[in-house]
Specification:
six-stranded mixed beta sheet, 6 strands, alpha/beta
């Protein structure tokens, strides 16, 4: 399909028949057009009162083309931002390619958010994310009085399998007594600087497995990903769920996806069925973080998510200790080894939380045992 510059009205009219035959989610489109001030109440009612989807689409297309260029442009923008929800993938000519060929103006991308119940639920998830971050911030503040907000200091994340091999507990124990204490302490501080960030991991199209020793910073990374998502504008991931060690043990074989997302996390205030359907049908807009996995029971909801039986296009981030890695099912994933603070990031972290105590910072930075305790 050749990409040519046409007016929005002509672009819609030229594909009118194909749209009438195949367009989906007409109520969502009508709601979006009303939000943008293109449709009035009567226009929306004319669409929603029709039972036949083809007639609903016919009304939408006829309304926007009659209203002119800006209305037709707004309609195309909605189809572009909501293509996963409105345009089928198995139609020829390819409607996804068709909408990609339209010459949109340079302006901020519209955020794909779905229907009003879905938008409301996304707001609930954002509130939940902020509550989780606030809770962890309070826990940290109880340990360090001056530490007012959740602060992330960059950690060294390594994706090189040779430098970060999969190790069994037996191998770890056999090495334990062969290395001198001085060398072991020195090994706790990685020499390299951070190459990847939580933002890189969040935007990476792959699933992520974060592996690291207890207290090395796996939770800090996942919480920073939650923080980035909660404060992100025009985010591609509409839904983000975070489960930690307090929730993971409850994932029995009998737990359903609905129970996991709505009972164990946040229940939608509006139209639970519509929200669940949107999550299932548009799983490319979903991220699920499992922090502290120790076991994955066969056929449990977690097992089905990892094996893509549920939410096949969702982004999954999982953290575990090295000794628990071998019990995970085979999973095509980007494996990231969390190695902790570099010397520079450790100093920045200490300077942040002990800003008015420079002597304490110098004392810790000059003592390897104290550095390891901080890590």
């Amino acid at each position: 399909m050749a990409c040519t510059k046409q007016s929005a009205v002509d672009y819609v009219r030229n594909t009118r028949v194909l749209l009438i035959q195949h367009l989906k989610n007409q109520f969502l489109i009508a709601d979006k057009l009303e939000e943008l001030g293109v449709f009035n109440f009567e226009n929306v009612r004319a669409v929603t009162s029709e039972k036949n989807p083809s007639e609903q689409t016919r009304n939408i297309v006829d309304f926007v083309t009659k209203k002119g260029e800006e209305a037709s442009y707004a309609f195309l923008r909605i189809l572009d931002s909501e293509r996963a929800r409105t345009l089928p993938k198995d139609v020829k000519p390819d409607l996804h390619q068709w909408i990609s060929c339209f010459s949109f103006r340079q302006e901020p991308e519209m955020e794909p958010t779905g229907s009003r119940p879905c938008q409301r639920y996304q707001n609930q998830l954002q509130e939940k994310a902020q509550a989780i971050l606030k809770s962890h911030s309070k826990q940290t503040k109880s340990l360090i009085a001056e530490y007012e907000t959740l602060f992330y200091a960059p950690l060294v994340l390594d994706t090189d399998e040779q430098r970060c091999p999969v190790m069994t507990k037996i191998k770890q124990k056999s090495k334990k007594y062969k290395i001198s204490r001085t060398k072991k302490l020195r090994a706790y501080i990685p020499l390299k600087e951070p190459q990847k960030s939580p933002e890189d991991l969040l935007k990476n199209g792959q699933d992520i497995l974060l592996v690291g020793k207890p207290g090395i910073g796996k939770t800090a990374i996942t919480l920073e990903m939650v923080n980035l998502w909660a404060n992100m504008e025009n985010r591609r991931l509409n839904y983000l769920f975070y489960f930690d060690e307090t929730t993971l043990p409850d994932m029995s074989k009998s737990m359903s996806l609905e129970s996991l997302l709505f009972d164990a996390y946040v229940e939608p205030r509006l139209d639970k069925e519509e929200v669940l359907q949107d999550i299932k049908e548009n799983s490319e807009h979903v991220a699920i973080l499992f922090d502290g996995v120790k076991d994955v029971p066969c056929n449990s909801v977690l097992w089905k998510i990892l094996n893509k039986e549920l939410l096949p296009e969702a982004k999954v981030v999982l953290t575990c200790r090295p000794e628990h890695e071998e019990i995970l099912p085979e999973w095509r994933v980007c494996r990231v080894c969390v190695q902790g603070f570099s010397e520079e990031s450790l100093q920045n972290y200490l300077s942040h939380i002990l800003g008015d105590k420079p002597d304490a910072v110098r004392l810790i930075m000059g003592n390897q045992e104290l550095q390891v305790k901080v890590k």
